UniProtKB/TrEMBL annotation:
Name recorded for this polypeptide: Nucleoside 2-deoxyribosyltransferase
Gene3D superfamilies in UniProt: 3.40.50.450
Species whose genome carries this gene: Roseococcus pinisoli
InterPro entries to which the protein is assigned, alphabetical: 2'-dNMP_N-hydrolase, Nucleoside_deoxyribTrfase
Length: 178
């Protein structure tokens, strides 16, 4: 069973090595990990690089049976927008979703906010969700609705730590392989 490994790790300087380590973890548990940077035939060279990368990632996702996403906050208080789009794409395809974060706090605690009556508001006056979730409710809600699981650590983890990823893979293998 093929599982797409979504997440912002593709931007790390050692992305290929981390991708290989994650794929090896998947293999140990009976899954075939597909990392976004895995080689495949790209569309015509006359397209801009960004369009070719986008098409390749969509092809990878369509070839997979499930998605496992690193939803650790990236460049902001929330998950990487590209990763959340991939999560939504696979949800729309009806595929099971699994996710994890290396951050310990709830979404509301990571966003600068103040109490305004019954609601928390950010600096622009916009309401900040306070459901005790790691990120926007649609992220964890989609994972749960797909039959998948979401994992959070007891203490913050570094980008290259694969311990929680492996726990997520084990859970995914149990659900997907029976």
């Amino acid at each position: 069973m093929r599982i797409y490994l979504a997440g912002p790790e593709v931007f790390l300087p050692d992305a290929a090595a981390l991708g290989a380590a994650k794929k090896a973890i998947c293999a140990r548990h009976g899954l075939e990990g597909v990392f976004p940077l895995d080689t495949q035939e790209l569309p015509a060279a006359d397209l801009p690089d960004w369009a070719r990368i986008h098409a390749a990632c969509e092809a990878h996702m369509r070839s997979c049976d499930a998605l496992l996403a690193n939803l650790t906050p990236f460049r902001s208080g929330g998950a990487d927008p590209g990763t959340t789009l991939e999560l939504g794409y696979m949800r729309a395809l009806g595929r099971p979703l699994f996710g994890y974060t290396h951050a310990t706090g709830d979404y509301r605690t990571r966003i600068t906010s103040r109490r305004d009556g019954a609601a928390w508001r950010d600096e622009a006056g916009m309401e900040v969700e306070d459901f005790g979730l790691s990120d926007n409710l649609m992220i964890e809600g989609s994972i749960a609705a797909s039959g998948g699981l979401f994992f959070r650590p007891a203490a913050p983890l570094g980008w290259n730590d694969t311990s929680l990823f492996e726990a997520c893979v084990v859970a995914a293998a149990r659900r997907l392989l029976g």
